[in-house]
């Protein structure tokens, strides 16, 4: 039997919409169907990304809730699987796979975004623990998360990229203050995170002290690789110890759209959905269809590229896919608004009531985000130029200059 058929058969035998999310996710984790692209030593099946999508296709055919799908599954678990000790893998990966712990990404700071290695959040050793002081910003979904992937400076005497460490940072502690930031979407997905004399145990250092730049780059590689291609969509529930979804019936969840409303939007390709809206509104014509066809082709090519993201076949595939994905976000905005015309000017409840649960309008206000998060388009192009095409590096101070001697910002 193929991977797809195996997964579908397993799901049909095990799925019960009356189970709680917690029970269903434990069942998926026990069968190693939560994140099968993880290595076997990290509770996965060692599948390629394409094989992982086959599992999701099997689950979708059986009509199940999807496995946990979030920052933890996208970045934290694969990073820990690559760089963690067996004890750390045992501690941190299973609660990601059964959805009982959630993670956020504590990388960007007010003075360190594209120039991530310029970060100044400080961690100082204190016996078996570290004391952390500093501020992060643009931290997506930080409220109520259990852990943060924290990059902090542990040795300012070392060069910029050398004195950084990757910590599994406990978020639910005194001294962590989270301030939500309202975006133009009307949501408050991202946040400022202040850390004031906060603590993290030494055994939460992932991938060795002062090796955080390398570990962080693994995280970014997984982030960009995951963002690269569209994947099989499945109904979504929120993970984490603070999530109220865990004790809800697993059958009570719908699909999620990027940056938009949950539920009521089906899993057909975006261009197909937009076509349906255009026909419902009586606005279909060849010019509008042309924009949708271009979108369909671009999304399909990127989906195929994304399938190869973890196979190592094409170098830089994550960067290429991420660039394509931000272009696709703009294409969706164009094709969507062409398809629904003046209805695109509605917002809030009016937009949701008009057509497609407000999907096009939500997509429009979300469209600038993908060219920024996970490293901006310009940064992706710099990486492609410098690391893959061999172009000269940007001018700057000597690489070995201690961080404390560099001018900041
Ligand atoms: C929706 C969203 C969610 C996010 N979630 C998270 C998160 O969960 N965790 C997290 O840590 N961060 C997150 N971020 C932050 C994101 O990683 C940063 O915004 C991004 O890396 C850019 O950094 P910056 O905002 O400081 O902009 P800057 O680095 O100040 O860049 C400003 C402009 O200058 C350009 N630029 C900068 N340097 C160069 C250069 N060397 N060459 C050419 N152009 C350059 C940039 O491309 C950009 O256009 C998120 C951002 C968004 C929009």
For the record, the count of structural domains works out to 3
Order of helices and strands: HHHHHEEEEEEEHHHHHHH
What structural class do you assign from the helix and strand content?
alpha+beta
Strand order of the largest sheet: 2-3-7-6
Low-confidence segments: 259-264
Put simply, the count of helices is: 12
Q: What does the main sheet amount to? A: 4 strands, antiparallel
Q: State the end-to-end CA separation.
A: 57 Å
| Shape annotation | globular
Which percent range describes the beta-strand content?
A: 5-15%
Structural write-up:
The protein has 409 residues and is α+β, with helices and mostly antiparallel strands. It folds into 3 domains: 98 residues, Butyryl-Coa Dehydrogenase, subunit A, domain 1; 107 residues, Butyryl-CoA Dehydrogenase, subunit A, domain 2 (Beta Barrel), CATH 2.40.110.10; 121 residues. It has 12 helices and 7 strands. The strands form 2 sheets. The protein has a 4-stranded antiparallel β-sheet, with no helix packed on it. Strands 1-4-5 form a 3-stranded mixed β-sheet. β2 and β3 form a beta hairpin. α6 crosses α8 and α8 packs antiparallel against α9. The longest helix has 24 residues. Bound molecules: flavin-adenine dinucleotide.
């Amino acid at each position: 039997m193929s991977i797809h058929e195996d997964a579908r058969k397993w799901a049909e035998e095990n799925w019960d919409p009356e189970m709680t999310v917690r029970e269903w996710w434990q069942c998926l984790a026990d069968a190693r169907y939560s994140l099968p692209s993880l290595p076997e030593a990290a509770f996965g099946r060692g599948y390629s990304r394409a094989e992982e999508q086959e599992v999701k296709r099997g689950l979708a055919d059986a009509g199940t809730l999807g496995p946990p799908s979030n920052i933890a599954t996208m970045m934290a678990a694969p990073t820990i699987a690559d760089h963690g000790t067996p004890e750390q893998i045992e501690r941190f990966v299973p609660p990601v796979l059964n959805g009982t712990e959630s993670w956020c990404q504590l990388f960007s700071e007010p003075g360190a975004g594209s120039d991530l290695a310029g970060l100044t959040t400080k961690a100082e050793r204190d016996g078996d623990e570290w004391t952390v002081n500093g501020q992060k910003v643009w931290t997506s979904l930080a409220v109520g998360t259990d852990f943060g992937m924290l990059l902090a400076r542990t040795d300012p005497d070392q060069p910029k990229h050398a004195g950084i460490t990757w910590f599994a940072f406990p978020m639910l502690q005194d001294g962590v203050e989270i301030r939500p930031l309202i975006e133009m979407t009307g949501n408050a997905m991202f946040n400022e995170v202040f850390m004031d004399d906060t603590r993290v145990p030494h055994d939460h250092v992932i991938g060795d002290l002062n090796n955080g730049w390398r570990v962080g780059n693994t995280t970014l590689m997984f982030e960009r690789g995951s963002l690269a291609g569209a994947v099989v969509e499945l109904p979504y529930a929120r993970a984490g110890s603070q999530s109220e979804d865990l004790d809800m019936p697993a059958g009570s969840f719908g699909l999620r759209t990027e940056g938009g409303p949950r539920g009521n939007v089906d899993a057909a390709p975006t261009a197909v959905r937009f076509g349906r809206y255009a026909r419902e509104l009586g606005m279909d014509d060849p010019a509008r269809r042309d924009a949708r066809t271009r979108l369909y082709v671009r999304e399909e090519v990127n989906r195929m590229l994304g399938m190869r993201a973890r196979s190592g076949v094409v170098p830089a595939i994550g960067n290429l896919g991420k660039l394509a994905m931000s272009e696709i976000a703009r294409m969706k905005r164009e094709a969507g608004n062409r398809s629904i015309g003046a209805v695109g000017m509605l917002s809030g409840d009016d937009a949701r009531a008009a057509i497609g649960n407000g999907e096009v309008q939500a997509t429009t206000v979300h469209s600038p985000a993908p060219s920024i998060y996970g490293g901006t388009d310009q940064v992706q192009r710099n990486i492609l130029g410098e690391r893959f095409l061999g172009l000269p590096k940007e001018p700057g101070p000597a690489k070995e200059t201690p961080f404390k001697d560099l001018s900041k910002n």
